[in-house]
Write a structure and sequence with these properties.
The complex is a heterodimer. Chain A is built from 11 helices and no strands. By secondary structure, chain A is mainly alpha-helical. In chain B, α2 crosses α3 and α2 runs parallel beside α4. Chain B is α/β, with parallel strands linked by helices. The longest helix of chain B has 16 residues. Chain B is built from 10 helices and 13 strands. Classes of the chains: A mainly alpha, B alpha/beta.
Chain lengths: 257, 309
């Protein structure tokens, strides 16, 4: 699996940098957005998740939003791109099996995106002399959110397998994502709290808000619930993808987008 | 030893209007090592559906596929013995170079990066692509891309190779190279399932032929045997110059048919008598009338279509 992961990182990175103008264009857009945020233009972040009004919170929130959006549409996007480039079937005849190949690729893509954004942020911070501060334990709730996002990504990928063209649906998913990441379930009480725990990604996003906006320490029981939530959604997404793969093979409609 | 065993494959598609189309009906095939099976049929006959069922990309309604004794629909390990170049697909990443493609697909098929790189270099050498190893695939000619796609399908040294229209759109030189490679690959002990609409290529390369029409196999036997079965017993004599009237009438009296510079002899016992009359005229060829795969194919398909009407 590690070998496959490294091969995916290498493949994605080569594809990204093969045409320098395109790569520089992408880096320029990300740099401009984050630089805008540093200069105080918080509206640049658009409809992204709000983790507070401080610069640190706005930037961490925007980064989280960017990464989760990236994860969410990665598998469906890969399916459609591979069908267009004529390599989709080759992925499905790998002895690793399609779910493992797509997950490994999605993690590799996320890693490249994460390293790219982090590097850009570090450069901007050194240029402006404004260093962000955030607790390193932020990584734990972030993992639970990313787990849930991968689960949903597999679910959207399943729809892409079954329905082929889902571009119109992706817009709806973006609204749903905004709701899930910004709904304040951490302040809900009673039966609403249970509903909050059942929604994907919201428990982890709540923890992130507690830590960034309210400067609270990491709540371990809450983290456990968020992790459980992330794992359940990840498992459900994976199961759905396996079902969709089998169903698409039964209908004989793999490829042909 | 049989590398591919396909037993009673069946696939039916249901459209949204509840229309039922039987794409594949009771198809059985086997291919042994060192053997090239030409899998032929008109468009829409069920070739691609069958190939995709063999590759584990379409689930059959009924029947069984075994590659080296393993079922690709139940056991992913079976895919280690399978390489495929699928028609209508590029099968390659265009932004990557040949060596990068070989390394990536090698790892995707279960090799270590080091082994994949080494085998990739060897394959590029063998497929005469070494000088293009660092050029992005999209800058290569169609022939080179196709050679590379075959090399990629061989990176994990599979026992079974599925080649769906491997010479489609290639120029004469590239076609010759691909044909040579297919022969070489089979001689290494691999089983090859080849589909093509270029029947002269199928005739030249295949040991056996399976012809599919309307989802069912209508003929499956050795290529030579099939052609022999459809060939007549007549002889054709071709002359360098047109025949004079005297010889023409003598030969016609024996029962042969004379048309300008060609003589058709249906009754083989008069062959030497005709040759005696022709002496000492210069001949171009004396040949037993031989069918070719195209004629056999058309005859089988047309007969079957008439029967099913």
């Amino acid at each position: 699996m590690l070998k496959l992961f490294l091969a995916e990182v290498k493949r994605s990175w080569i594809q990204f940098i093969r045409y320098p103008a395109e790569a520089i264009g992408g880096i320029f857009i990300i740099s401009a957005l984050f630089y805008g945020l540093f200069l105080g233009a918080s509206y640049v972040a658009g409809s992204s998740i709000k983790l507070g009004d401080r610069l640190d919170s706005i930037i961490v929130g925007y980064m989280l939003w960017t990464l989760v959006t990236f994860v969410l549409f990665d598998i469906a996007g890969t399916l459609q791109n591979e069908a267009q480039t004529g390599t989709l079937e080759q992925l499905f005849i790998s002895p690793f099996g399609a779910p493992r190949v797509f997950l490994t690729r999605a993690i590799a893509n996320l890693m490249i995106q994460f390293v790219l954004i982090t590097t850009i942020l570090l450069i901007i911070m050194s240029l402006t002399g404004r260093w962000l501060s955030f607790p390193p334990t932020l990584i734990f709730p972030l993992i639970t959110v990313i787990l849930g996002a991968y689960g949903l990504s597999f679910a959207i990928g399943s729809l892409a397998l079954l329905l082929k063209r889902i571009q119109q649906l992706l817009g709806i998913f973006q609204f749903a994502l905004l709701f899930l990441l910004s709904v304040p379930t951490e302040s809900w009480t009673g039966s609403s709290k249970i509903v909050g725990l059942l929604l994907p990604m919201t428990a982890g996003a709540g923890l992130l808000r507690d830590m960034m906006a309210r400067q609270q320490p990491l709540n371990l029981p809450q983290l456990g619930l968020a992790l459980l939530n992330g794992c359940v959604y990840f498992g459900l997404g994976l199961a759905l993808f396996r079902f969709a793969e089998r169903e698409t093979k039964r209908r004989g409609r793999l490829g042909g987008y | 030893m049989q590398i591919l065993e396909v037993q009673h494959l069946q696939k039916t598609y249901r459209s949204s209007r509840k229309k039922i189309a039987q794409a594949v009906r009771d198809v059985s095939l086997t291919i042994a090592g060192r053997e090239v099976l030409a899998f032929l049929g008109p468009n829409g006959a069920g070739k691609t559906t069958t190939i995709k069922m063999i590759a584990g990309l379409i689930l059959p309604d009924r029947g069984d596929v075994k590659i080296n004794g393993r079922n690709p629909h139940r056991d992913a390990e079976a895919l280690r013995s399978l390489g495929a170049v699928l028609e209508g697909n590029r099968n390659l990443y265009w932004r990557l170079t040949p060596i990068e493609n070989l390394e990536y697909f090698g790892v995707l098929r279960g090799l270590s990066p080091k082994v994949a790189r080494q085998r990739g270099r060897d394959l590029l050498e063998r497929f005469e692509l070494s000088d293009k190893r660092n050029a992005p695939v999209q800058t290569l000619s169609r022939g080179m891309q196709q050679k590379l796609a075959i090399a990629v399908a061989l990176i994990h040294e599979p026992q079974l190779l599925l080649l769906d229209e491997p010479t489609l759109g290639l120029d004469v030189e590239a076609t010759q190279t691909v044909k040579r490679l297919i022969r070489e690959i089979a001689s290494e002990g691999r089983a090859i399932l080849l589909t093509t609409h270029q029947l002269d290529i199928a005739e030249e390369l295949s040991d056996r032929v399976a012809i599919i029409n309307q989802g069912a196999i209508v003929a499956e036997e050795s290529t030579g045997e099939l052609i022999r079965r459809f060939s007549g017993s007549a002889y054709v004599v071709e002359l360098e110059h047109e025949l004079d009237l005297d010889r023409t009438s003598k030969i016609q009296n024996l029962g042969a048919i004379v048309t300008e510079k060609t003589i058709l002899i249906r009754e083989t016992e008069i062959l030497y008598e005709v040759l005696h009359i022709l002496q000492p005229l210069p001949l171009i060829r004396v040949e037993k009338e031989q069918a070719n795969l195209t004629e056999v194919f058309l005859q089988l398909i047309q007969t079957q279509s008439k029967t099913s009407c």
